[in-house]
Each structure stands twice: as structure tokens, then as C-alpha cells.
Amino acid sequence: MSDHNLKSNQDLITRIDELFHPRSVAVVGAPRGMKTGSIFLLALLEQGFSGPIYPVNPQAEEINGLKTYPRVADIPGPVDLAIILVPHWNSLEVVRECAAKGVKGAVLFTAGYRETGTAEGQALEEELVRLARSAGMRLIGPNGMGLYCPKTGLSFFPGVSREPGPVGIVSHSGSLTNILGRMASRRGIRFSKVISSGNECDLTAADFLTYLGSDPETGLIGGYIEGIKDGPYFL
């Protein structure tokens, strides 16, 4: 949870802005063929992300025309953002690799954490946060889609506009965010930034609203919020 003072808010805004402007992206667990996680790699390619995109899959040499690496540690250059698609039971190992690589932020897409209502799921989330914070890395999710920013070519769903606009969205629901993005795109609504925050083990809707409120590219903010962890901070 973030400290709620001016200095920490500015630090938070800077860190989140870095996540929306990565110079390189790793897609860890990128699948071959048209499987669930394939949309992330396809979306980055479709949106025209200008930096290096590193698929990570130990069972593939190339995916969608991109050289593929067995592990995060094998990627030759720095990685600013990791999109982690591996099952929850492998997530600690991957986050540990990302921490060692110096990754600044990671999106955890898969489910199987606190939302299961189990002590094991809760403990796994807590360990992920502990590990990430010890390395200075921020987490989005788990059980969330991540970030969409047409200006930088960052996206988690194909078929949406590459044209930026003034609308910022924060949503807990990945499915609803996906539907909203497609419907809005067809109706001419354009976005500055969209966040699907999932379980919010680290960064929360309140954190992202703080960021969007300071973002000069965002003129209108919408949200789909299923629950609030810290009421006073949210207000």
C-alpha cells in the first residue's frame, strides 16, 4: 500500500508512468498458436510497439516471427515490463527471474491467487509482493489484463484503435475491460490509458486513479471498481 503524502504520490506517479512507457517488453509464457495468452503478443505487434519484444518459452525458438528465449535470464537486453502468462504455481520462479533481471514492473495475468479464497492463494500473493518489493519492482494483478496505452503501442487486446484519446479507465474486471475497449473503439471513443488491475496485490485502483488524475493526456476518467482496499486513500 502506498504512503499517502505528496512526495510518495509523486514517486508513485513516476513509477506508474514508467510502466506505461516501457522501452522493452517480455511476454513470459508466450504460447505457440492461437491460445488464451497469444492475444498479448498479437496486441503488441498490432499496436506497433516500437521497442524490443521478447517472447519467453523454453519449448519454442520463434513465435510470430520473433526470436524466443528459454528464460528471462537469457534475454540479451534490459527488460522494462514483463507480461507473465505462466500458471500461478510457476509465478514465483518467474518473478524471481524478473527481479534478478532488473525488470521494473510485471503484469500477472493468470488466476489462482487470493480470489480462490484459500490460504495458499493469499500466501502466494503475499510472497510475490515481498519478492517484488525487495527488488524495487511493481506488480499489476494477478488475475488482470494489465495496461493499454495506444500512444506507446502497449496493449492487451487486439482489434482496438491505435489512435490516442482523452479517456482513462481503471477496471478490476479483465473481461469487462476487453469488451469495453472493443465497443468503445467501434464507437469512436479513444483512450489515453486503460488499466485492468485484477486482484491488486500491489498497485491498486486508487494508485492508478491518482496517476490518471495527474496525467496531462487524460481528460475523463471512468472506473469499474468491485471493492476498495483503503477507503480514505481512495477518497
Secondary structure: elements and pairs:
Blueprint: H1 6-20, E1 25-28, H2 38-47, E2 53-56, E3 62-63, E4 66-67, E5 81-84, H3 91-101, E6 105-108, H4 119-134, E7 138-140, E8 146-148, E9 167-171, H5 174-186, E10 191-196, H6 205-214, E11 220-224, H7 231-234
Parallel strand pairs: 1-2, 1-5, 5-6, 6-7, 9-10, 9-11
Antiparallel strand pairs: 3-4, 8-10
Helix pairs in contact: 1-6, 3-4
Care to describe what's here?
- The chain folds into 2 domains: 135 residues, Rossmann fold; 89 residues, Rossmann fold (3-Layer(aba) Sandwich).
- By secondary structure, it is an alpha/beta fold.
- The strands form 3 sheets. The protein has a 5-stranded parallel beta sheet, with helices on both faces. Strands 8-10-9-11 form a 4-stranded mixed beta sheet, sandwiched between helices. A two-stranded antiparallel sheet has the order 3-4.
- It is globular.
Assembly state here? single chain
Poorly predicted runs of 5 or more residues: none
Strand content: 15-25%
Mean pLDDT: 92
Strand order of the largest sheet: 2-1-5-6-7
Name of the top-level CATH class of the largest domain: Alpha Beta
